[in-house]
Write a structure and sequence with these properties.
By secondary structure, this protein is an alpha/beta fold. Helices cover 61% and strands 10% of the residues. The chain folds into two domains: 112 residues, 3-Layer(aba) Sandwich (Rossmann fold); 94 residues, no CATH class. The protein has a four-stranded parallel β-sheet, with helices on both faces. It starts with 7 loop residues before the first strand and ends with a helix.
């Protein structure tokens, strides 16, 4: 079993949805568990604290990236209350375990070594898969019995509409960079690099990727506009050829 040496930590707390983040659900429990763990150590030092509202299935999390960077810079360990607060993806955890430049401690499993943490992550992921399969099977049976599943959720429509409007506004704010670069033949990756180098972040505060640039272009209608222009030019060329043939 591992002994905890150099009790210097960076705390990382995560909840899965905006509602949990705003209401504080889950954060308080995590903070309490971390304080109980830290209270069992002598002279524990907290270098920083990061709180994130994001799905545990996602690897692209700005707060986690900053927390890990601070750990590497200060030599502190990343501290989470439970393993699933770090990630629900066993591959993501496995990659972190292989990274020798940073260590992390799970308050619920303080003495677990790297092999044990990997094993716990694999078992947790397997259990989630079993739960998902059982849920799908139960829903299928209920549907076959005539049970009506789901229902009207007007608040979700409003939420999606608001997110769509925010995404459109951001696309318009970076149109002055995206459109000229694309007109000059820049790839989606080149455009993403230009936005990142300019210090511009996505709507969620993340680095730009080619898929996100493509989504912004679609929201701006730039692809449709180019297609219509290309079609018009093609028609004009055809008409010109026909006129030349008639004159000859």
């Amino acid at each position: 079993m591992n002994e905890i040496k150099n009790p210097k930590f960076v705390k990382y707390l995560r909840v899965s949805t905006q509602e949990q983040g705003k209401g504080g659900h889950g954060i308080g429990a995590q903070a309490r568990d971390l304080e109980l763990f830290l209270g069992s150590l002598e002279a524990a030092e907290i270098v920083g604290t990061f709180v994130e509202v994001a799905s545990g299935a996602k690897g692209d999390r700005p707060e986690l990236i900053q927390a890990l960077a601070l750990c590497r810079k200060s030599g502190a360990k990343l501290l989470v209350s439970k393993l699933d607060r770090l990630s629900r993806n066993v591959a993501f955890i496995a990659n972190l375990l292989e990274d020798r430049s940073v260590e992390f401690v799970v308050a619920a499993l303080p003495r677990a070594d790297r092999f044990q943490l990997h094993l716990y992550a694999a078992l947790a992921e397997q259990e989630r898969e079993f739960i998902s399969q059982r849920t799908k099977a139960a829903l299928k049976v209920a549907k076959e019995r005539g049970v009506k599943l789901g229902g009207a959720r007007p608040h979700l429509h409003a939420l999606n509409a608001r997110k769509g409007e925010e995404a459109l506004q951001q696309a318009r704010s970076v149109a002055g960079i995206i459109i000229p670069l694309r007109r000059n033949g820049a790839t989606l990756q080149k455009v993403a690099d230009a936005l990142n180098n300019a210090g511009i972040r996505t709507q969620r505060g993340c680095m730009w990727r080619p898929t996100q640039v493509s989504n912004a272009i679609q929201r701006l209608g730039y692809n449709k506009l180019n297609t219509e222009r290309a079609s018009t030019l093609h028609d004009q060329k055809c008409l010109t050829r026909m006129a030349i043939r008639q004159q000859s």
